[in-house]
Amino acid sequence: MTRLQTLLGIDLPILQAPMAGVQGSALAIAVSNAGGLGALPCAMSTPEMIRTELEKIRAATSRPVNVNFFCHAPPVVDAAREAAWRRTLGSYYDEFGIDPATIPAGPGRAPFSSEAADVLEVFKPPVVSFHFGLPAPDLLARVRAWGAKVLSSATTVEEARWLEAHGVDAVIAQGVEAGGHRGMFLSDDLTTQIGTFALLPQIVKAVKVPVIAAGGIADAEGVAAALALGAGAAQLGTAFLLCPEATTSAVHRAALKSEAVRHTALTNLFTGRPARGIVNRLIREVGPMNPAAPAFPLATAAITPIRAKAEAIGSGDFSPLWSGQNATGCREMPAAELVWRLAER
Amino acid sequence: MTRLQTLLGIDLPILQAPMAGVQGSALAIAVSNAGGLGALPCAMSTPEMIRTELEKIRAATSRPVNVNFFCHAPPVVDAAREAAWRRTLGSYYDEFGIDPATIPAGPGRAPFSSEAADVLEVFKPPVVSFHFGLPAPDLLARVRAWGAKVLSSATTVEEARWLEAHGVDAVIAQGVEAGGHRGMFLSDDLTTQIGTFALLPQIVKAVKVPVIAAGGIADAEGVAAALALGAGAAQLGTAFLLCPEATTSAVHRAALKSEAVRHTALTNLFTGRPARGIVNRLIREVGPMNPAAPAFPLATAAITPIRAKAEAIGSGDFSPLWSGQNATGCREMPAAELVWRLAER
Predict the structure, then answer these.
(1) Are A293 and A96 a contacting pair, CB within 8 Å?
(2) pTM score
(3) SS3 B94
(4) Which fold has domain A1-72+109-248+330-345?
(5) Do the beta carbons of residue A263 and residue A279 sit within 8 Å?
(6) Is B291 on the interface with A (CB under 8 A)?
(7) pLDDT band for position B291 (cuts 50, 70, 90)
(8) Which helix (H) or strand (E) element contains residue B116?
(9) Contacts of residue A199 in chain B, CB cutoff 8 Å?
(10) Minimal CA–CA distance to B155: which of B190, B127, B129?
(11) b/e for A212-229, b at 16 or more Cβ within 10 A?
């Protein structure tokens, strides 16, 4: 048992990465009941949805589950930028017969809030994690009040030191290989984002709290390598995307099983922040990092109807096909079995 | 002993990465005599220089040494592009009082040639490695004729398969963390360049020949992690840059020992091809990847006099400060001792 396993109360050094949009309580429950740490992503959920999911979790497991939130500053809406962005996407609106004037604006993702804290206080989850830093001190204090262990992601040594100084119980070292949103919060310079092999040992040396390795880990050998580099546990997301308990869409599952999965990129097209997904038509044609995309998470709105029309005809050309750089661990098997395999060595 | 150690005839699973411009035979001899595989970089050497270095190696060790060459296609000189690039650098020429009309053109780096093969045939080095793919079949056949084992770098699964199909004896999986030139040769799209944690196990699964891990490895724990991921050995470059046997410049050594080393970027400013170095003033001001830079290796010429003037006043602002993303393994100790420490676990 590593120090981290004791801290989190888990039998196996395996964390399932929270993945908003492709999983809910079912995956979290399966992973936690198998001895790992399941996660419930709440970035795209209303307080009522969070309550419903936490009720399901309470009914199905007595093991710890990690409840995860984004904690970005709410964006400033910029009508001119939004209009320019919709013009950039104009040929796609034409192609799918969409009137861009009818697209509702809206952020799509919400940061941790006092309303969310109200819900959490009822359930008192033992582990709460954040992405993009930490929430305001008063909100964080509410989470700490029931004894929750607090985790957050660091993509640089500087971020790891910042998180430790602000009181996290463990740091997730998120290497550049990882799928989904980069947790970066002290810089928006992508050249600061480094590989797990380089990031993990530097963070292990830089902080005293336990470190969780994320990014590029796909199997038991990967978990063993992460532990050899000083991690107390490994966090995997991509590997769970084909599990029956995940709600991964059909086009996303098809892409993960295709040769296309070998080529991912960090892209801001889907939300406004860099996140790693499989390179598809939109990314190829607009470029993965387009400076015209609206600020996070406002970019979500403009793509949503194009994505819906494309998915309706079985195409993932306009979908955020989140994936890490190593999808070889994806298995169409129950999450519990996957957890056990990952911990085999 | 791994299969790779037997193939290369080395006691320890440690390869020293060839690093043109910062080392010669002295480092190669020290590493090979310690039981690892030292390397002699020849990309910036004339045939006569190569002969002199190989004579030194023959006199100092009976162990195998890896003789390394670039094998890029010679560039097409584009006078308009060169002129535009010198205009981009105009303020620096002014700052240092340099007349750009006096700067000699020239490639700076040469690919493997029949003249180089003539020299090698005299010495018959047991290991020859290439960067940027492989040389033309007739040149490669000459190397094979004396029984040399041939290595080359792959930065993608596709490149690894290509190298195996073209007859290499082992593949170096070069993760994006690695310092110096990316070995990429089937694509120039940087989003194809992935972290060691993701690349290494995918290449291990994709090819039958042994695989050497490179990128982000800094210490014995890193070597152990690479072996856990299926590598037969680890190749390290950055870790050797502070060894007394390296010819690393004073400004380069100072940068490696400073906080600046935490921030590297892939940049084409110094040669025309993406290579990883510490972010300095030139990279910050011109951008790490500038589309105006001349084709590899022609970009070298325009920077050379600015670099020389800056280094003369102790500044690395315009120098290629090659480094990987994990410089924590740099030690000011004899290379032999470093090799033994790396192999300690």
Answers:
(1) no
(2) 0.96
(3) helix
(4) TIM Barrel (3.20.20)
(5) yes
(6) no
(7) very high
(8) helix B114-123
(9) 325
(10) B190
(11) bbbbbbbbbbbbbbbbbb
Does residue A219 contact residue A333 with C-beta atoms inside 8 Å? no
Give me Rg for the CA atoms of chain B. Answer: 19
Domain residue spans of chain A: 1-72+109-248+330-345, 77-107+258-327
* Distance, first Cα to last Cα, chain B: 13
Q: In angstroms, what is the C-alpha Rg of chain A?
A: 19
Chain B environment of A225 (Cβ under 8 Å): 197, 225-226, 228-229
Per DSSP bridges, beta strands B14-16 and B233-236 are parallel
| Lookup: tokens for B191 | 């989003």
The answer to whether residue B297 scores a pLDDT higher than 80 is yes
pLDDT tens digits for B261-290? 999 999 999 999 999 999 999 999 999 999
- C-beta separation of B231 from B340 below 8 A: no
CB A175 within 8 A of CB B197: yes
ipTM of the complex in this document? 0.94
Of the pLDDT bands very low, low, confident and very high (cuts 50, 70, 90), residue B104 is confident
The domain defined by B1-72+109-242+330-345 carries CATH number 1.10.390.10: no
Chain B contact for A191 (CB, 8 A cutoff): yes
Express as a percent the part of chain B with pLDDT over 70: 100
User: In sequence order, what are the beta bridge partners of A213?
Assistant: A173, A234
Q: Which two tokens stand for residue B304?
A: 């050379």
* Residue B217 with chain A: CB contacts under 8 Å: 197
Point out the residue among A158, A195, A225 whose CB comes nearest to the CB of B177: A195
- Cα A285–chain centre separation: 25
